[in-house]
Write a structure and sequence with these properties.
Blueprint lengths: L8 E6 L2 E6 L14 H7 L4 H38 L6 H8 L2 H18 L11 H7 L6 H19 L2 H13 L7 H5 L1 H18 L8 H36 L1 E2 L13 E13 L2 E13 L2 E7 L7 E8 L4 E4 L3 E2 L6 E2 L2 E6 L2 E6 L3 H11 L10 H19 L1
Parallel strand pairs: 3-7
Antiparallel strand pairs: 1-2, 4-5, 4-12, 5-6, 6-7, 8-11, 9-10, 11-12
Helix pairs in contact: 2-4, 2-7, 2-9, 3-6, 5-10, 6-10, 6-12, 9-10, 10-12
């Protein structure tokens, strides 16, 4: 009921009829004697302008979801399934590179749209309660992370294929048979990334047009936060994958590498810099040298510069942070080694210890802060390693062309 526009007449519905009522003919039911009439009016405040806006936003959300599901159907049935029929051109691994898990996304949104349609009130769109639909499905939207992380692989693979006439013509034939707009396949495959980012914006607009008295107010409010968290989670996993990729690329520039790959136990590089290093066994200095030190989640890698190849390093040693004791050394004579130390810290292991000396106090403080942080074990998953290898290999292929 809208009572904000006119004092003499109120707008509302009664027994499925909508129209204007003389205010003198309307009696406000108040089951709580302690609540004033003005409080009741405030709780039920839903002016016609807000009704119109909410109806428009709900209708737009519904229509864009229908259009999106239709697009997903065209991609899955018109491209993915057609590619499977041509295994000579599209082996399973190539289809995985191109389309990722788009079929799982399509299945999710078919169900999601059915739930939205059930919650949608066609006669009175502004009364629709769709917030709960988002809340029931919020955990399922996590599958978008896999799709978004696969996008660089997909884009590179598609660019390589469309340079070849027979692949270009195949994709064009698929598009024409489905009556889709004249856009490259890359444009269609970008739609899921755009869609998942749009939900928080649409829900935020819906929340602004939903009065506190509306049954959908609280669910929409929670849904806004939930979908923002989904987007944040996707971005965080993307940043993690980029960090893992940087580790792999960095290790490729280290000559004479020994031991397992860094990504088997590490997920990001935390800090690096030049320090003076001394290896001590049984109280004797075995070797000492200026080195480049690289700190990762679980490992400390000691290298020296390659004087011939720029931006390349020569591997010297690798220390697992799980098997050492970190000691922050005071300036002066060290009680165990007898060395006069300044701006130093050391790692103690069974049978040996390594003393690192920084150039100045600020540099030492930075190293100590990073080394005293809690260790987080978060190695690359099999899927992440696949994506990293695919991205690096495909990027290298594009560079060579």
């Amino acid at each position: 009921m809208d009572y904000s526009s006119h004092e003499e007449f109120w707008y509302g519905n009664c027994r499925e009829r909508v129209g204007w009522f003389p205010s003198s003919y309307v009696r406000i039911l108040n089951s709580n004697p302690s609540t004033s009439t003005s409080d009741v009016l405030s709780l039920n405040y839903f002016p016609q302008s807000m009704r119109f806006l909410r109806a428009k936003i709900v209708q737009e959300l519904m229509q864009t979801e229908r259009d999106y599901v239709n697009l997903l159907q065209n991609i899955v049935q018109g491209f993915t399934e057609q590619c499977r029929r041509r295994s000579d051109l599209f082996p399973a691994v190539r289809i995985q590179r191109l389309f990722g898990n788009i079929e799982a996304i399509y299945a999710l949104h078919c169900k999601f749209l059915r739930e939205l349609e059930l919650a949608f009130n066609r006669n009175i769109p502004e009364s629709s309660a769709i917030g709960a639909v988002f809340l029931r499905n919020r955990s399922k939207f996590s599958i978008y992370s896999e799709y978004c992380n696969n996008r660089p692989v997909s884009s590179t693979e598609l660019a390589l294929l469309t340079e070849q006439t027979h692949y270009y013509q195949f994709f064009e034939a698929c598009r024409l048979l489905r009556g889709m707009p004249k856009l490259p396949l890359e444009g269609f495959l970008l739609a899921p990334v755009q869609r998942i980012c749009r939900y928080p914006l649409q829900l935020s607009e819906l929340l602004k047009a939903t009065p506190t008295s509306h049954k959908d107010r609280e669910p929409v409010k929670i849904a806004v936060s939930a979908m923002k968290n989904v987007a944040a989670m996707i971005n965080e996993k993307k940043r993690r994958l980029e960090g893992l990729q940087q580790i792999v690329l960095w290790q490729m520039n280290v000559e004479r590498w020994r031991g397992p790959d860094l990504v088997e136990t590490n997920s990001r590089m935390i800090h690096s810099g030049e320090v003076y290093c001394r290896y001590i066994i049984g109280g004797d200095i075995i070797w000492h040298k200026d080195v480049l030190l690289f700190l990762f989640d679980q490992s400390l890698v000691i290298c020296k510069k390659d004087l011939i190849k720029r931006n390349f390093y020569i591997f010297r040693d690798r220390i697992s942070l799980n098997s050492v004791t970190f000691l922050n050394c005071n300036d002066g004579k060290d009680s165990t080694t007898g060395l006069n130390l300044k701006n130093s810290w050391k790692l103690v292991m069974i049978g040996r210890e390594v003393v690192f000396t920084c150039k100045d106090r600020n540099s030492k403080v930075t190293w100590v802060e990073h080394l005293q942080r809690p260790l987080i074990y978060s190695p690359a998953t099999a899927e992440e390693r696949r994506l990293i290898c695919e991205t690096i290999y495909r990027t290298s292929s594009m560079t060579l062309l």
